[in-house]
Write a structure and sequence with these properties.
There is one protein chain. This protein has a 7-stranded mixed β-sheet with strand order 6-5-4-7-10-15-16. It has a 4-stranded mixed β-sheet with strand order 11-8-9-14, with helices on one face. The chain is built from 10 helices and 16 strands. Helix 1 runs antiparallel to helix 2, helix 2 runs antiparallel to helix 3 and helix 4 runs antiparallel to helix 5. Bound molecules: 5-S-methyl-1-O-phosphono-5-thio-D-ribulose. The site of 5-S-methyl-1-O-phosphono-5-thio-D-ribulose has 20 residues, from helix 2 and strand 9.
């Protein structure tokens, strides 16, 4: 059944499906502690650009509840904002959501602030559900017939408040009889593809297989894939798009083999303050994510490791960017 979610807010508590345990265990973290939510973002218990923004918004609201307010209000707002901002650097949705929350905090009177913040967090969440729906609808136009699709990382319900970004396009196309098969890149090192995308595809009954990331070029070359679609964590003003490491490889492969490469993302992922992808802050992960699986090392932990979590795909390699507003084409003007 499809009844699961990345994050829910219920009776002043946040409920997070722990994505580090999926698909083998479905365990929920229930908390009203903003620091625990910050940790959940850092540990990727909740992840995916829009979901991170939603989680941070609820965390902000919980941190600013009346009962927790003592001392200087302005200092508290700044401390909570800075703590949550420091959880992950690349997905702009985090900063976008936190800026909205801070604005509400600074522009409410003390009596109403608590309620206003909860209302704003719920609004950020429900707007995302709506944006996911629109992305799915707008993406349908890239499917003129039944297609075999390859995707990278996880962009579904687990990564957003709604049906997802690239995943929402796949879901909508499947419901319209337009998807023959989905190839899910495993997405090293944290396996968002083979664990999370597989989990979501299975729930919907969409035919799929998982492959190691380096198999994608062979699938594309051998004509086994009709189009590639991924999400994004931040899209610069010129269309350069940061997404999970390995996305750039896919775009280069698609260009070489003349296969369309699409990005799907909500408007909240477009960062007009970044002129180009060069200004996007890329997250680097800890060495142990590459040297071990779980607690088990499979190589020496003394080896040097290079572990960017994201790469930037230049705008000219992207066939189209599907947002909740429209399907944009190169050269991008948002
Ligand atoms: O490190 P993650 O799992 O948070 O990375 C997520 C991605 O790269 C997704 O593709 C991106 O956030 C778009 S999800 C709607």
């Amino acid at each position: 059944m499809q009844h699961y979610y990345a994050i829910e807010f219920h009776e002043d508590r946040v409920i997070i499906l722990d994505q580090t345990k999926l698909p083998l265990d479905e365990l929920y973290i229930v908390t009203d502690d903003y620091e625990r939510i910050a940790e959940a973002i850092e540990k990727l218990e909740v992840r995916g650009a829009p979901a991170i923004g939603i989680a941070a918004a609820y965390a902000f609201a919980l941190a600013m509840r009346k009962s927790k307010l003592n001392g200087d209000l302005r200092q508290r707002i700044d401390a909570v904002y800075e703590r949550l901002k420091a959880t992950r650097p690349t997905a702009v949705n985090l900063f976008w959501a936190l800026d909205r929350m801070k604005y509400v905090a600074e522009n409410s009177n003390l009596e109403e602030m608590s309620d206003n913040l909860i209302i704003e967090a719920v609004k950020i969440h429900s707007e995302d559900i709506e944006m996911c729906k629109r992305i799915g609808e707008n993406g349908l136009e890239i499917f003129s017939e039944k297609k075999r699709v390859l995707t990278h990382c996880n962009t579904g319900k687990l990564a957003t408040g709604g049906d997802g970004t690239a995943f929402s396009v796949i879901k909508k196309a499947f419901e319209n009889g337009m998807v023959k098969h989905v190839f899910a890149d495993e997405t090293r090192p944290l396996l968002q593809g083979s664990r999370l995308t597989a989990y979501e595809l299975e729930k919907l009954g969409i035919p799929f297989s998982i492959n190691v990331d380096s198999t994608a070029s062979v699938l594309i070359r051998d004509g086994m894939v009709d189009l590639v679609i991924t999400g994004a964590d931040r899209i610069a003003k010129n269309g350069d798009s940061a997404n999970k490491i390995g996305t750039y490889n896919l775009a280069v492969n698609c260009k070489f083999h003349n296969i369309p490469f699409y990005i799907a993302a909500p408007s909240s992922t477009i960062d007009l303050k970044c002129d180009t992808g060069n200004q996007i802050n890329i997250e680097y992960r800890e060495a142990n994510e590459l040297t071990s699986i779980g607690n088990k090392s499979f190589t020496k932990d003394t080896y040097n490791v290079f572990a960017p979590a994201f790469d930037v795909t230049p705008a000219e390699l992207i066939t189209g960017i599907i947002t909740d507003k429209e399907l944009y084409q190169y050269p991008y003007k948002f």
